[in-house]
Amino acid sequence: MWTVFCPIASKRGLHVATTSGSPAAMMRPVHLEPEEAVQAALDLGCARALAMHFGTFDLTDEPLDEPPARFLAEAARRGLGDRAWVLRIGETRAW
Fold first, then answer.
1. Do 33 and 69 form a contact (C-beta atoms < 8 A)?
2. Would the CA dihedral through 32, 70, 23, 51 be positive or negative?
3. Where along the chain do its domains lie?
4. CA distance 3 to 9
5. Which of 67, 79, 80, 88 is packed most tightly, with the most Cβ within 10 A?
6. What is the mean pLDDT of residues 56-68?
7. What is the structure's pLDDT at 5?
8. pTM of the entire structure?
9. In the chain, where do the E strands start and end?
10. What is the rounded CA–CA span in Å between residue 48 and residue 28?
11. Cα–Cα distance, 69 to 34 (Å, whole number)
C-alpha cells in the first residue's frame, strides 16, 4: 500500500497526518490513525516519522493531545524511539 513512497521515505522521513479518525466520515479519507502512521513508517523503512495535523483545529471527537500521545506510545512500543517526532509549536529540528 505504501510502496510508492518508499524511495522518498527512506531518505527524507515521513510526514504523517495523524488523528483518531473520529468522526470517520470527515477524517478517515485523508488521515491515519496514530498506530497506522507508525506502521506506515515501519513499512516504508523511514529514517524519521513526524506526526502532524493534530491539535490545530478542534474538529475531532478525541481530546487534542490524544493523537500525538498515541503516536509516541506506539512508536516506542514498536522500536522507533527517537526517530518518531512530535514537535512543539515553533520547534525546529535538523532533518
1. no
2. negative
3. 3-85
4. 10
5. 67
6. 81
7. 59
8. 0.77
9. 14-17, 49-52, 84-85
10. 23
11. 9
The Cα–Cα gap between 30 and 73 comes to 22
Q: For residue 52, give the amino acid letter.
A: M
C-alpha cell at 56: 490545530
Question: Of all residues in the chain, what percent are helix, strand and coil, respectively (each to 5)?
Answer: 40, 15, 45
Round to whole Å and give the CA distance between 81 and 26: 31
Rounded Cα–Cα distance for residues 74 and 20 (Å): 13
CA-CA distance, 93 to 17, in Å (whole number)?
Answer: 18
Provide the pLDDT for residue 89. 85
CA 37 – CA 4 distance, rounded (Å): 16
Phi first, then psi: give them for residue 65, nearest 5 degrees.
-90, 0
